[in-house]
Each structure stands twice: as structure tokens, then as C-alpha cells.
């Protein structure tokens, strides 16, 4: 092991020499000069002062460091947000949300904890967006309400952001800056560059933050598609150039690191669509991700070729299609190819294609409602061809399966991923990741965008490509990663975590409320209401027992009566002992009921005593 480490050190030295030759030279020169001076020190005191000054300069250079503070997106898929701090500049990359886990009952969305950014508000120069997916932009309205900083993004990304900000009444107060790939934004100490990538949404970019120590490259979500729908291939030349100039740290997408080979081109899906459209006799209904503009473009192309009209169903998809058409990301050869969902019955079935949300089986989505006969405009009929152009995100398999079953029962033909090539991923597989690592040749590497297993395997991939073992680091949110010219290390941590959004409340629902919700959802609640006379402490009315989600009271009258008797006895005892403290009375009621109910039902409902005084 030792030998190996030593070897690595040698390799590191060589790598840095190749990359930073001028810098290394300067350092050596400075060192040599210092040596010469050291000999002269006894003879000349004034020269010694100069020497000290030089030493300080060198020291300062050596001390120069960049901090990377991930506040989301590590050990989880979602709520991506990374802060890059150099001197007085903090660059924030992405600002995403996460959808709640099953145990986060009633929570709408989850956003990152940005306490650190609020504390360092003056340094935050802007939020720089890689692309328009919810897990990268979804937290913007909430974060911008806390820290109103400029937002930078490409045309489509900002188009989607605008719709979002409009919903939150923020459009007039936030400064949106539209950028193009290869644009460079200069800040006080660093500059930020955007580099084109491919992904399952148009206009995605990687971000390079140029610092005096080298570039920090964040790939964003990416894949390498040589035949993308919009013709905009990832800017591999620029990645290579930046790599040549010296990348001190790369953070790269780890989503598909477990998959060998390459992600297929989006164009292959278009070919599958053409085959399906050629054979379909009735309506075609295609479900996909609302934001997959390229996929929707391919639906439009197939529809044009086979003379069908396109109707869109599902609010999020309608919004994005509107923005994408307006900004030129979805183009049509035929005018009026899009029709309103209200108008589908004016055309024969074989002239209609419906693009819809619900590819994940989400219960409230348009496709689920169609499958359950709850959609107001579309009823599934025999002869319909439903194409589910997505793969279920882990955890959604059951939901998707239920929708597929319902569709088959209604007589529709259903085509899903297992049956045809109707979906490709938006993330790089192993070979594409290898290409990125090889082009960029980072000195240090930090995998992002993935659960722990993805991060771990991405590090192993980087090692295989020759990265020294101690040059890769798996981090967690809240870690402060400190990078100097020659080292990477964790140096403390900052507040981080998840903030729950429920309705209008941001952060007001915490773990205690969630625990109660869980308790209520599992065993229900039992409320005991008693009225006590203030002066004497004797019961004047009640106890009354109301229950929800515990037992059906009408069928459990005996149980409830017995419970009432027990409460009465408990109250009696309190009265005898002259206990007048409400808290004590309440806990006595709880104790006696908890034991009794568990014994009789093996259930533990939440018990809520309410005492009224007259
Ligand atoms: Zn994405
Ligand atoms: Zn993502």
C-alpha cells in the first residue's frame, strides 16, 4: 500500500507539473532566490526584510483556497444546490427541490436549507443554473424570497423559471440574466462560464468557475448525444480546452454510473415513434416527462408525418410546451398542428395524438385520471394506443404498473419501456463519464447528483482512469470542502438539511409535526372532552369521547363506554387527591386510556384530552 501511495505522489507531481508548468516554475524560482538570500542574510539585514516579504507572498499564495459547500444533491437525488466560495465571491450552482418521500406526509416539496447563504448574503453573487429541471430550479421561488440575488441561465431555462416566478409574484423583483453557451460572467475574484451539454431537456449547460487556482467544473446533468434533436452537440472541444488549462476540481453527474456503455441518442426514440405512428389505427396517447421538450418535439414530427393533430394534457406540460414554442425550442412545419384538448372529438380518432403527463403513474396526473375514467376530456376506449415514454423512477414502479393495468382493462394497447425502445435516459453512462473525465483531467474529483452508492461507484470509475486515490472525495451536504493548489480536505461543516414546504408554509412543518402526522395516519386519534367546575374540581359534563381513524365508534360502543368509565374513575381519583393541575389530570387520563386501548385493540391511537373549565 505504502509503495502505491508513493507512486501516486510521484504521479501527482508529474500531473501538476504538466498542467501548471508556469506556476511551478515561478515557485521554484522563488524558492531558489530565497535560498540565495538565505546565504546573504547575515551580511545584509535590509535584504532579510525583502526576504520576509517574499515569504509572506508565497505563504499567501499557498494559503489561497476555494471552499465548496454542497447544500443539496449529495446522498440524495434532488434539491441540487452547491456553493463555491473564493475570497469575497460565492457562486451558487442550481437551486432545486426534491419531491417528498412517502413518510413525509402532506409535504408538497422539500427544499435545501440555505442558512449559510443567508449568513453570507453579501458574498453571494448569483445563482447560476445548469438546466430547467425541477431538481435544479424548483427551490428558486422560495430561496429568492430569502436572498434576492441575480439569476443566470440559458434561454429555455429562464423561460421555465419565469413561469415559476410569475406564480409566486416574483417576476418583477428578481433579476434574470440570460446567457449563451461560452458566455463568461466576470465577478470580483472569479468568472463563471457556461458550456453546452446534452440532457433530457434542451439548453442544458455545464458551469466552469475560473479561479486563480484553476477551474472548478460542474457538469450539471449531462449525457453525450452525437445526434441530438436540436443539433446542439455538447461542446467537447471547450471541455478539452478547459481541461488543458487546468481543472482543479470536477463535480460530475453520477446518476447513471451503474450502467455500462453509452446512453442511446434521443433520436432513437424518434425512430420508435415513427414505427408506432405508422401502425396505429386509433388515437395515440404518449405520456412523458412534462419538461422533455425534445421528446415532445419528436411526437410533433411523427404527428406531422402521419397527419395527426397534437393535443396536450396536464398543466405542467401545457406550461412548458407554451414556453418552448414561444422561444423556438419546439418547432412545427404545419401550422395549427396543436389543438386544444377540448377539440379532440372534432377529428377522427386516427388523426389525433395526445401528449400527456403521468408517465410516473402519479395519482393526480392526466394519464392516471384517464386510466381511472376521471379525466374530464379524455376517456380511454378500445383501440387507443398508449405509449409510456419514460422509465419509472425507483419507487414509482407500483404506481406505473397500476396505471398500465387499468389501461389494458379499458381495452387500450399499451407500449411501455420493457416492450420497445421508447425512452432513453438523460444521464451519462459509464463510457460517457469516462470521456468527460479524460477530457477534463481534473486534479481533484467530487461526484455529485446521486445517492451514496452512485457517488461511491463514480469515485471508483475515476480511480480506474488513473486519479490518485486521495484526490477523490465523497461528500455530504453541509460539508465544507477546502481546496488548495495541492490538497483537498473537509474543513468543518455548516447548517444544512431539508426544509419542508406545505401549502403556504415554508419550514414551519418540522419533525415533530411530521411525527404526529405519522402517528395519526397509523393509529388515528381519540379525543376525550371533560368539563370541570373550577371551584370544586368536580366533573360537570362528560367525559365525551370522539375518535377518528381509530375505530368505527358505532361498532365499538362497548369499548367507548368502558373507556369513558375508566376516565371517570381517573378523574374521581384526581378529585380525591385534590389534584387541580391540568397537565397532571391530562396525563392521568392518557395513561389509563393508553393501557386499556392497547390491551383491548393492540392499537396505539393518539390520545388528546381536552379539559374545559366553568
Ligand atoms: Zn436534469
Ligand atoms: Zn437533476
UniProtKB/TrEMBL annotation:
InterPro entries: Metallo-B-lactamas, RibonucZ/Hydroxyglut_hydro, RMMBL, RNase_J, RNase_J_2, RNase_J_b_CASP, RNase_J_bac, RNase_J_C. This is Ribonuclease J. It is an enzyme of class 3 (hydrolase). Substrate binds at residues 423-427. It comes from Clostridium oceanicum. An RNase that has 5'-3' exonuclease and possibly endonuclease activity. Involved in maturation of rRNA and in some organisms also mRNA maturation and/or decay. NCBIfam families: MG423. Homodimer, may be a subunit of the RNA degradosome.
Amino acid at each position: 500500500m505504502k509503495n502505491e501511495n508513493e507512486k501516486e505522489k510521484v504521479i501527482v507531481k508529474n500531473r501538476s507539473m504538466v498542467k501548471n508548468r508556469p506556476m511551478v516554475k515561478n515557485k521554484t524560482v522563488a524558492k531558489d532566490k530565497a535560498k540565495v538570500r538565505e546565504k546573504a542574510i547575515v551580511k545584509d539585514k535590509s535584504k532579510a526584510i525583502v526576504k520576509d516579504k517574499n515569504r509572506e507572498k508565497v505563504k499567501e499564495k499557498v494559503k489561497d483556497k476555494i471552499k465548496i459547500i454542497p447544500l443539496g444533491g449529495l446522498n440524495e437525488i434532488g434539491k441540487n444546490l452547491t456553493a463555491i466560495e473564493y475570497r469575497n465571491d460565492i457562486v451558487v450552482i442550481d437551486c432545486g427541490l426534491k419531491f417528498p418521500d412517502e413518510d413525509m406526509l402532506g409535504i408538497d416539496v422539500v427544499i435545501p436549507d440555505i442558512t449559510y447563504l443567508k449568513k453570507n448574503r453579501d458574498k453571494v453573487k448569483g445563482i447560476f443554473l445548469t438546466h430547467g429541471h425541477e431538481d435544479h430550479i424548483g427551490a428558486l421561488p422560495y430561496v429568492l424570497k430569502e436572498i434576492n440575488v441575480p439569476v443566470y441561465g440559458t434561454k429555455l431555462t429562464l423561460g421555465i423559471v419565469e413561469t415559476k416566478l410569475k406564480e409566486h409574484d416574483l417576476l418583477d423583483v428578481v433579476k434574470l440574466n440570460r446567457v449563451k453557451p461560452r458566455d463568461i460572467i466576470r465577478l470580483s475574484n472569479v468568472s463563471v462560464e457556461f458550456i453546452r451539454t446534452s440532457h433530457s431537456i434542451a439548453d442544458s449547460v455545464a458551469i466552469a468557475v475560473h479561479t486563480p487556482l484553476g477551474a472548478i467544473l460542474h457538469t450539471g446533468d449531462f449525457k453525450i448525444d452525437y445526434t441530438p434533436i436540436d443539433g446542439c452537440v455538447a461542446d467537447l472541444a471547450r471541455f478539452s480546452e478547459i481541461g488543458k488549462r487546468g481543472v482543479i476540481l470536477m463535480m460530475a453527474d453520477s446518476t447513471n454510473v451503474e450502467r455500462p456503455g453509452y446512453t442511446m441518442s434521443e433520436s432513437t426514440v424518434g425512430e420508435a415513434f415513427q414505427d408506432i405512428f405508422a401502425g396505429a389505427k386509433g388515437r395515440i396517447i404518449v405520456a412523458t416527462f412534462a419538461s422533455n421538450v425534445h421528446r415532445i418535439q419528436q411526437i410533433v414530427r411523427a404527428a406531422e408525418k402521419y397527419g395527426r393533430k397534437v393535443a396536450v394534457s396536464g398543466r405542467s406540460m401545457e406550461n412548458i410546451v407554451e414556453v418552448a414554442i414561444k422561444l423556438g425550442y419546439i418547432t412545427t412545419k404545419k401550422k395549427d398542428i396543436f389543438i386544444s384538448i377540448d377539440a379532440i372529438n372534432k377529428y377522427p380518432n386516427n388523426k389525433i395524438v395526445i401528449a400527456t403527463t403521468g408517465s410516473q403513474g402519479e395519482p393526480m396526473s392526466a394519464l392516471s385520471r384517464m386510466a381511472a375514467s376521471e379525466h374530464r376530456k379524455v376517456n380511454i376506449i378500445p383501440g387507443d394506443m398508449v405509449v409510456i415514454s419514460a422509465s419509472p423512477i425507483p419507487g414509482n414502479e407500483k404506481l406505473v404498473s397500476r396505471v398500465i393495468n387499468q389501461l389494458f382493462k379499458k381495452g387500450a394497447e399499451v407500449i411501455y419501456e420493457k416492450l420497445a425502445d421508447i425512452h432513453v435516459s438523460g444521464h451519462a453512462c459509464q463510457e460517457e463519464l469516462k470521456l468527460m473525465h479524460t477530457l477534463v483531467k481534473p486534479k481533484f474529483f467530487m461526484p455529485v447528483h446521486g445517492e451514496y452508492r452512485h457517488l461511491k461507484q463514480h469515485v471508483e470509475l475515476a480511480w480506474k482512469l488513473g486519479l490518485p486515490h486521495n484526490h477523490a472525495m465523497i461528500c455530504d451536504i453541509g460539508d465544507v470542502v477546502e481546496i488548495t493548489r495541492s490538497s483537498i480536505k473537509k474543513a468543518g461543516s455548516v447548517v444544512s438539511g431539508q426544509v419542508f414546504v406545505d401549502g403556504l408554509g415554508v419550514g414551519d412543518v418540522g419533525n415533530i409535526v411530521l411525527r404526529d402526522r405519522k402517528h395519526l395516519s397509523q393509529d388515528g386519534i381519540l379525543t376525550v372532552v371533560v368539563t370541570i367546575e373550577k371551584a370544586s374540581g368536580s366533573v360537570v359534563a362528560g367525559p365525551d369521547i370522539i375518535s377518528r381513524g381509530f375505530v368505527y365508534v358505532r361498532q365499538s360502543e362497548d369499548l367507548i363506554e368502558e373507556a369513558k368509565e375508566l376516565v371517570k374513575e381517573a378523574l374521581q381519583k384526581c378529585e380525591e387527591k385534590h389534584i387541580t393541575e391540568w397537565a397532571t389530570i391530562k396525563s392521568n387520563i392518557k395513561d389509563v386510556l393508553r393501557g386499556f386501548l392497547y390491551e383491548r385493540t393492540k392499537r396505539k391511537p393518539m390520545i388528546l384530552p381536552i379539559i374545559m373549565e366553568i
